[in-house]
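User: Now give one protein:

AI:
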Amino acid sequence: MKGIFPKELSRDFHKAFELRQVSDYKTFKPVLIEKAQETLSKASHFVETVKEYLKIGK
């Protein structure tokens, strides 16, 4: 279904996945703390949004 979640959730999810891929497989360069904190904040928002949707869907 389209339109259930805001588009930025999908973008943020894909960016986090790409960051993980690069960090795990392409370089051994550490992720900057600011980027890690930003990604964690967006991941938390993603989880909370999905939790809220699942509550409503019950």
Q: What stands out?
A: The chain is about 80% helix and 0% strand. Helices lie at 7-26, 33-57. The longest helix spans residues 33-57.
